[in-house]
Structure formats: structure tokens, C-alpha cells
Amino acid sequence: MVICYTEFMITLLLGTDIFEISSWVSGHFGEADVIKVNAPEKIPDTSELQGVSLFGEANNYWFINQYQNLSQEFLQVLLQSPNMVILSEDSIDRRQTKNKNFLALSPEQGLQVLEFDAPTSQNAAQWLVKHAQSLNITLDFKTAQYLSGCLLNPEDKNSKLSVYLAHQELLKIGSFADGQPITKEMIDQLVIHQTGIDIFKLLNMIAQKNIAEATQLIEAYYESTLENENSSSIRLVALLAEQWRNLLLIKDLIEQGKTDQEIMTVTGWKSGRVFILKKLSGNYSAAQIISALNKLSSLDKELKSSTLPSRVIVDMIISTIN
After folding, report:
1. What percent of the chain has pLDDT over 70?
2. pTM, whole model, 2 decimals?
3. What is the DSSP code string of 39-88?
4. DSSP alpha helices (H): ranges in 89-162?
5. Inter-residue contact 225 to 195 (CB < 8 Å)
6. Does residue 1 register a pLDDT over 60?
7. SS3 for 36?
8. Comparing C-alpha atoms, which of 17, 280, 22 is closest to residue 127?
9. Residues paired with residue 64 on neighbouring β-strands, in sequence order
């Protein structure tokens, strides 16, 4: 059954929790067909969006990380379309005029915005329990807390859980558990604890174009983690993307004239973290940061689908990121 939301012609889903986003989409459209638009060449013509199906029913379009490829005129067509439209994005730069104007639309004007950010250390255990249940895996809260401690970066209390890696780890442990509840002993046996990498040091090396030392730091990360190269690379990309987003945020707050104390209140960061991020942000323009985030997004997709060696892909992105 197709569920129509006449008050919202566009629903914007923001965040990196791909599983919660997928759950929202499937839950709100039931068994209805959703036309996925996940590449620029798949973006339909405006004439197609202004019509309905052969049976007179509205279509359901899901644009996945395609917002940057949509013009203001195209977005206006979406708002006037008789079809249901979902846009899902990891993040949107709220400082650009196009984005400001779009995000300023009210629900009455046809836009609904929902946040699906990846969990942090504060709620990672709850997320793991809930996701395990969706996979028919038994995981109690205390054990989930222990697992989250293994998956999150111990050097960064504000780090976000890589939901893709957490999903893979749950599948692995769940298969081993074979219907039994997951235990701490199983986690110790199967999950490599997060050793972390000094992301701030890496970003500083990239800013100084010191690729040789950046490569050495990454090599040390691979040697210390003991994970397979693909998982290590996906984790590294997630950590880098998180800090690039932090750099973009702090640049925005600085441009707004926020004091260090105000920045700490807004973000929850400690003074030392604010100091480091402010210093690092001076090395990059907002355009460079956005470019880096776009490259990392492409790299993440490549790592999850390509047969090219993971470390080759990371070397490529590090050498072209600034």
C-alpha cells in the first residue's frame, strides 16, 4: 500500500546511520516500489517527475546522496511534483545560499527534515542492542556497552560509531553465537579492539603536504589494528570524515563570531579539542573541506564495492585530498 503524505512533498533524511534511514523508508512506504536514484545518470527528467504512474498512482523517488547534483530549479519541480520524494544525505553545508534557502522551507511549504546521525559513546550501546534485535541476534545492554568500547575510537570520546562496521561485527559474532546470546568472551575472541590513530596529527600532515609522514602514520595504524585491510580502511575513512565535518563546523562557528566558551557549549567539546580544531581549520578553506568530504564519501563507496586493494585506494585519497 502506498502511503501518501500530502503535507510533505519532500522528506530530507540527514545523517550517516544508513540502517535507520533504510528502516524509515521501508516503514513508511511498506511494500511499495521505491525508485532509487543513487547516481547522477539515474536522475529522472523533470517531465517524468511531473507525472504519475500508468495506474494514476504517485511514484516514490529516493535520491541517495544526490542533493549536490540537483539545481534549485530541479528542487522546485520536486516540491510541485505529485510524487513522493525522499532525499537522504550524510550532511549538507548549511552556509551555501542554495542550501540555506532549501532548508528554510517549512513543513507547510512541503519539506520535512529528519535527523539520523550515527550514535556516539553516549548511545552506541542502545543502538547495538536495537540493531542486534533487527538481525535476530541476542545482545544484552551490558555486553553491548563492552562491544561499543571495542568499536569506538578510545582517543576520541566524541567519536561516532561506524554503523556499517558495527553491522558487520554483529553479523560475524551472531553467526558464531549460533542462536545463543552474545557474550564478552565471544567479543574478545572475534572483535579487534579499536587502537585508533592520531587523526589530528594526520590532518596536520596533510595540510603541510607531508605525504611521506602521513603514509607512515597510516602504515603504523594498519600494523597495530590487526583487522583485515578493508575493515581498517573503512574505519580510517569514517574517522577522517568525522574530523573533516568537525573542521567545517568549527569554521562556521568562528565565522558566526562565537567565543571558545560558546563553541564548547554548542558542541560539547573540551577546551583542548576546540584549540586543536581551530588551529587545524586555519589550514583549509570551507571549499577544500567540502571537497575532502566528497572524496571521502566516494572512497567509502569504493571500499564497500571495489576489488581494488583497500590500501591502494586510501593512498590515492590521501595524495589528492588537499
Report:
1. 86
2. 0.61
3. SGGGPPPHHHHTS--TTSPPPEEEEES-GGG--HHHHHHHHH-SSEEEEE
4. 97-103, 124-134, 141-151
5. yes
6. no
7. strand
8. 17
9. 88
Counted residue by residue, the chain has a size of 322
Which three cell numbers, joined as nine digits, stand for 136? 535476530
Q: What is the mean pLDDT of residues 236-249?
A: 87
pLDDT by residue (tens digit) across 123-143? 999 999 999 999 999 999 999
* Residue 129 cell numbers, joined: 542492542
In angstroms, the CA 253 to CA 146 distance is 34
Over residues 65-93, the pLDDT tens digits come to 899 899 989 999 898 888 889 999 988 88
| Distance from C-alpha of 316 to C-alpha of 207, rounded to nearest angstrom | 16
Residue 120 DSSP one-character state: B
Residue type, 130: K
Beta strands in the chain (DSSP E): 10-14, 35-37, 60-64, 84-89, 111-115
Does residue 231 carry a pLDDT above 80? no
Strands across the sheet containing 10-14:
35-37, 60-64, 84-89, 10-14, 111-115
Q: At what angle do helices 163-177 and 229-255 cross, to 10 degrees?
A: 150
Query: Residue 192 in 3-state DSSP?
Result: coil
Q: 4 pLDDT band (50/70/90 cuts)? A: very low
Cα gap 167→128, rounded to integer Å:
8
What one-character DSSP code corresponds to residue 194?
A: P
Short-list 291, 196, 204, CA closest to 235 = 196
Q: Which residues fall within 8 angstroms of residue 225, CB to CB, at 6 or more apart?
A: 192, 194, 195, 232, 235
SS3 25: helix
